[in-house]
Amino acid sequence: MSISDLNEPLKDVIRSIVWCSGEPLVVSSEVVELLFNHLRFCCTSIVNRLPNNQPSLNDLLNVVRYDTQKLARIFDYFQILSGSQDPKYNGDDCVEVKSDLVSHVNTEPDVSRVSALCTQLGIPLPVSIISTASRLRTPFLQGRRLRLARIDQKFARLSVEDYITFTRVRQSATLLVFIRNNQRLAFWRWVFLQSKHSTEFALNDCSNLTSRNPLARPEVREFIRVLAHLLTGEILDVVDLTLFYRRKLGIDLQTPITPVEVNQTLRLMSKHFPHKNF
User: Fold this and answer.
1) Please, which domain of life does this record's source organism belong to (predicted)?
2) Total number of domains in the chain
3) For residue 262, which of 235, 236, 232, 242 has the smallest C-alpha distance?
């Protein structure tokens, strides 16, 4: 699969993420395009700060060391791996840092490993800096709660068949779908084509890279999985902040999200939440 061929599947996942946030109708193509461009921007912001095109979890932690939300999402990902969190919500719960994170650090090997890496790199655990970040986190937290309430209200209107369909789509509404199938290498190359390392991935045919597959190293595979989880969270953040501003303006939460709203949210995000732009 060529890199350009991956654009439409990526947009389909973005469409699913927004639709599974309680949208009453089909998500507009304009909204999807805005969020796709935001995804590219977020990807570039992260990847351009990596030391090379063979990164590890250590490198990713260093890049997001000052972003409490992203650090929380990384811990969330490893809590899902350990089975201490339900995986079907695809990061919905990560904005609320668990109060029992310390207990998971002490009992779950994956979480303990990330905690040890943070200590080694001088990065405070999310649970230890949550109080200093509350002002920045509150709009996202309130927006997330509005999104979950919006989903509940959508559930109440669905037939049994539609509920089953919605649940199935929601479970796959994550960029991790590209890691779980044969699109993993194409997704990896798409990620780096957004970056300063793009010249190292000039070929269009992924099959030509079999002998020098950058994902052959387990630490790189781990990096791309966690990155996919973080980028999914970036889309959810825009949805959550949009719903937060809707509530402040008294706009009905059950109406479709519009391109004007998303544009405004992205502008306000860059102004009031500069940590989102590194």
Assistant:
1) Eukaryota
2) 1
3) 242
Cα atoms in the 13 Å half-sphere on the side-chain side of 253: 23
This prediction's pTM: 0.86
Q: How far apart are CA 233 and CA 73, in angstroms?
A: 8
SS3 call for 1? coil
Tell whether 99 is covered by a domain: no
95 in any annotated domain: no
pLDDT of residue 125: 81
| Distance separating alpha carbons of residues 170 and 89, to the nearest angstrom | 8
Three-state secondary structure string covering 155-222: HHHCCHHHHHHHHHHHHCCCHHHHCCCCCHHHHHHHHHHCCCCHHHHCCCCHHHHHHHCHHHCHHHHH
Q: Is 127 inside any structural domain?
A: no
Which residue range is the domain that position 212 belongs to? 3-56+137-277
Predicted confidence (pLDDT) per residue in 98-127, tens digit: 444 444 455 678 889 999 999 999 998 876
Task: Kindly state the DSSP code that residue 62 receives in the 8-state scheme.
Answer: H
24: nearest Cα among 252, 274, 266, 278: 252
